[in-house]
Each structure stands twice: as C-alpha cells, then as structure tokens.
C-alpha cells in the first residue's frame, strides 16, 4: 500500500490541537484585511472594526479583535452571515492576509398589529428599512388609529454603528389618547427623543434617553373639568433625562416550555420643566418545578415613586401613575377615587374621578403549567395579584416604615385562573383568557361591577423581503 492511498479524501481536517497551537503562535505578525460582499452597505460601516483588525500585532490580538468586530457587525442585523479566512501573505515574511466575507441582509418589512388597551381596540401599521442608504441606519414609520381612544404616529431613525454605544436612536412622535379615569380625558403628546443603548457588562445593560414633550390635556368635547384638575388643563412642556438598567439572567433551553432565572429592571428619570423625579423597579423570577420547565412558579413585583423638587409640591396628573388590570387582574382601576372593595357602588352609579397617584406597588404570583395532551402554544395558569396606589406629596412620610405598613394593608387583591395562547395561527403575539375574582379584606371573593374576561392583548403579522 502506497503512502498516497493512506491520505483521506476531501479537504484536510483541522484538529482542535492544531487550532490551539496556531492560537498560541508566539511571533509578531502584521495583518492586511480585505473584504467582499458589500454591495449596498457602505465601506464606512465596517471600516472602524477593520482598522482595529489591521492594528493587531499578534494572532491572539487579531482573534480578540475579530470576536469584538463580529459581535458588532452581527448586532447591526444587516448581514446574513460573516466569515473570514486568515492565510500567510507571500509578500511579507511575518505578514498574514485576512479576507472577511459579508453576505448582506437587505431587509424591508411591513407589519400589522391589533392592540387592545383600556377598553379600546386599535390597529397599527409599521414599515421598516433595516439598512437605509447602506449606512446601517434603521428607519421605522408606525401609525396607530384611527380610533380616537389610542392614536399615534412615530418616526424613528436608529444608528446601528455609532462611535459610542451599541446604537443611537432619534424619535419623532405625536400621540393622542382618551383617558377614562378623570375629567381631562383628551391627551395629546408631541415631542422628540434621543436614546443611546450601551453594550452589556457585568453590571447589566444601560440605556440613556433625553427628550422634549409638548403635552396638552383637555376635557372630552363639551364636558367640564373638575376643580382638582383645573390647573392641569392646557398645554405644558416636559424636558427629561432617563436612565434604564436591565440585569437579566433568564434562560430557556430548547424544549423548555417556560423560562427560568431572574430579570431585574430599574429606571430613574429627572424632568426639568415639571421638576419631578421618577423611580421605577420591576423584578421577575421564574422557578422551574418540573423537568423541561413543564411547570414554573413566576413571581413579579413593581414599585414606583414620583416626587417633586425645587419648591414644587404638586405633581401634574399627566405625570402620575395609573393602576389597572395590567397589574391587578379583575379591576378597572385602583388608587385615589377608586371604589372601595368592601362596598362596591351599584353599576348605574357614576364612578368618582381617579386622577392617579405617585406611589405605586404591585405584586403577583403565578403557577404556569402545560395542559394535559397539549404541548406548545397553549398553557394554563393560576394566579394571585395584589396592588395599591396612593397620592402623597410628603416625600419624608412616604419613606417611613409606618407608611409602608399602611400602604400594604390598603392593597387590593384578586385570584383566578386562565389560559394563555402564546402563538395564535398566522399571528405573532400573546392572548390571555382569565377568570379573576377580586377579594375583600377578609380574603373572600366578591362580585365586582366592572368584571371582565380580558382587557389587554396584542397580535401582530409581519412580512419581510428576507
């Protein structure tokens, strides 16, 4: 048998030992980078990372820079695939030639969604170009309406290859809503915002936003304005800066029905024109109870506090929280002006004005499980919700232990069960069908006049040319 017959057919096999030996190549190198496949995308989009690759003095530096460059390019969502070859450069003794091959994703998409919120259902249309002018800008135009209860138009431009951060985004918006809780029902907000998303770190992901809003609050048609909210009527400005931090350790293995882990989100906002500070915290924890995540205990909590500074004590109604069935199922509204649970008013009696609050707390626990014989898009859950909201301008009092105990004692609660449809045929979204029982202060279910099956969902259809 000759030596030639011992050679395997096909390309040579690169073993792990050979790769590790190459990555420990000790001598200095010089790298010349070439690229191909950019037809629509401008060279300037990838030039910053290519310059860093060419500055690599060792194989180890090149590999580290390529990993960072690949993460950056992949995060732009304008390439289907990115590959490279590193081979000796015959024109230089210590030189290497790197060839980076890009395959572009020239995606344009159109989406239609149907959203139900605050007892109104409105459609939304969205158009997006993920690589505008080949500059790694993503342009999105969305319009929602024409129902007067929830109408808006947004235009956003996202720069996905900025010199600072993961992406930067400019947004122009005009939003109009009908609010049912108080006499200033017609709300319109026009404005401009700029946001910057930072890369992930050991301290979480950070997002910064600043913006200007011009807000107008008016009564509905010929209705009057209550004395308590009279000074909030009309046009006002709000300039703000906000910082959000997300720390997520959620994981979901292939085949698992539910996720597991912890998700924490905090937000802090300072508004100059209104002289208010807003703090929000959300926490979610998913604890698997069975293998493959067939049953999971999920715990959720939300805390919020708004306070005024610089001689201002009153918080305008458009800057306050609202607490509804999104937090505590089975209730149309909670907080100042909401009917007492122990003695609900008759259905024909008009509700009191509910102007919102500046202190909010809500928590829920849910046991999520698969249904026997149904694996996939439909699951079941049983839940318990509790929450409270108040308006208190005395910041020192709110931060005391006595106030916290009183606040918790005044919370309203509900229990119930329901079905969750995670994937609706032909649609992308989530829909819940729940049966919720509000509880009185002794823990007994009561008949509440504003009972309903579900009050919030969103379903979406999307098409793209990719």
Automatic annotation (TrEMBL):
**Residues annotated as domain Bacterial surface antigen (D15):** 131-442
Q: Name one GO cellular component term.
A: mitochondrial outer membrane
Transmembrane ranges, per UniProt, are: none
Which keywords does this Swiss-Prot/TrEMBL entry list? Membrane, Transmembrane, Transmembrane beta strand
Compartments annotated for it: namely: Mitochondrion outer membrane
**Family listed:** Belongs to the SAM50/omp85 family.
Q: What protein name applies here?
A: Bacterial surface antigen (D15) domain-containing protein
Q: Which organism is it from?
A: Eutreptiella gymnastica
């Amino acid at each position: 048998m000759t030596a030639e017959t011992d050679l395997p057919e096909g390309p040579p096999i690169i073993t792990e030992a050979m790769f590790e030996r190459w990555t420990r190549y000790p001598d200095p190198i010089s790298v010349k980078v070439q690229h191909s496949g950019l037809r629509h995308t401008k060279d300037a989009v990838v030039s910053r990372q290519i310059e860093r690759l060419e500055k690599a003095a060792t194989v180890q530096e090149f590999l580290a820079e390529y990993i960072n460059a690949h993460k950056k390019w992949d995060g732009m969502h304008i390439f289907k695939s990115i590959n490279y070859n590193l081979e000796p450069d015959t024109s230089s003794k210590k030189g290497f030639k790197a060839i980076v091959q890009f395959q572009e994703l020239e995606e344009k998409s159109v989406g239609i969604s149907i959203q139900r919120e605050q007892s109104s259902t409105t459609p939304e249309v969205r158009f997006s170009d993920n690589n505008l002018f080949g500059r790694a800008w993503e342009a999105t135009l969305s319009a929602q309406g024409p129902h007067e209860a929830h109408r808006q138009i947004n235009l956003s431009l996202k720069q996905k290859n900025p010199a600072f951060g993961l992406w930067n985004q400019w947004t122009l918006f005009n939003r109009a809503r009908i609010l049912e809780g108080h006499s200033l029902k017609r709300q319109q907000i026009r404005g401009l915002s700029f946001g910057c998303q930072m890369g992930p770190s050991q301290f979480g992901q950070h997002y910064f936003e600043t913006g200007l809003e011009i807000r107008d609050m008016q009564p509905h048609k010929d209705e009057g304005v209550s004395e308590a909210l009279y000074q909030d009527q009309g046009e006002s400005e709000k300039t703000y800066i906000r910082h959000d931090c997300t720390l997520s350790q959620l994981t979901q293995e292939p085949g698992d029905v539910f996720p597991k882990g912890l998700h924490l989100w905090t937000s802090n906002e300072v508004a100059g024109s209104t002289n208010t500070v807003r703090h929000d915290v959300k926490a979610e924890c998913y604890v698997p109870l069975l293998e493959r995540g067939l049953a999971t205990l999920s715990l959720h909590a939300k805390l919020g506090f708004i306070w005024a500074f610089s001689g201002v004590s009153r918080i305008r109604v458009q800057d306050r929280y609202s607490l509804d069935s999104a937090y505590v199922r089975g209730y149309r509204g909670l907080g100042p002006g909401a009917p007492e649970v122990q003695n609900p008013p008759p259905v024909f009696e008009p509700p009191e004005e509910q102007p919102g609050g500046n202190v909010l707390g809500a928590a829920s626990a849910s046991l999520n499980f698969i249904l026997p014989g149904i694996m996939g898009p439909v699951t079941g859950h049983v839940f318990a919700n509790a929450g409270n909201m108040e308006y208190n301008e005395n910041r020192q009092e709110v931060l005391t232990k006595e106030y916290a105990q009183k606040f918790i004692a005044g919370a309203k609660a509900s229990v119930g069960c329901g079905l969750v449809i995670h994937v609706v045929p032909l649609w992308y979204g989530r829909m819940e069908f729940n049966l919720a029982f509000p509880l009185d202060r002794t823990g007994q279910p009561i008949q509440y006049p504003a009972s309903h099956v579900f009050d919030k969902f969103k379903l979406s259809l999307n098409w793209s040319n990719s």
